[in-house]
Model the fold of this input.
Amino acid sequence: MELVDAGIVTPAVRHAYERDGAVLLPAVVPPIWVDRLRVGVATDQAEPGPWASHYTPDGAPGAFFGDYCNWSRIPEFRAAALESGLAEVARRLMGSDTVRFFHEHVLVKEPGTREVTPWHHDQPYYCVDGEQNVSFWIPLDPVPAAVGVRFLAGSQRSGRWFVPRRFADHAPYADAAGRYELVPDVDAGLRGSGRVGDEVLAYDVVPGDLIAFHFRTLHDAPGTAELANRRRVVSFRWLGDDATFALRPWLHSPPFEPDGLVEGEPLDDPRFPLVS
Done:
């Protein structure tokens, strides 16, 4: 079976990833893996896992569905994580000797969905610390930049950590405290002076493309009111050599139990397999 070609991660691509915190890898996921991921998404929507969410209110147009951590029961997700070659792309982007699979995340917005994904970055949600990490945002349908995910370039290098926000109502998990700030009004900054310190990156993508981004890169996504087709995405999250188990002031998401993991120690656990 054709594998993802990790040769796409040239020194220039890795430099762009380290500089901007997000980079587009075009035409890198072979069609057979796109098709398998579509099967996995259909299975997940038909039989959601215990942590599935439906973010669209009853009676509102469209539908926004999310679910994660189902790779152990959905063979297409498991194969993509462990056998497709995605792990080697992640390893090279992170500059890591090893790569550990963290989890997958399905995000589906049907046509006409009004719900937006608020500005946030991912690492404060997660039970993991470390600089070597990467998320892959893999579209299974054409997604114009106007309705796709967008990133605040370089925001992963700011040293700032933001309180997570709920996708359902955009409320913060908690008040600002310690190193955790509330997410600023990024859109107001963009409308005001024209700069909030960084460039906004957004990409027109088609099936086969992959967007890679750091766990601390600020990002958001609009609704799909103007989109005629579905917007199916599967994200795969990866950890490198320096990843350690972390506790947060709130229940982390996904809500993994420690089950023997020790804060500050590697996530050496079958739930997070080493792939290479």
The helical segments are 11-20, 31-46, 75-83, 86-94, 186-191.
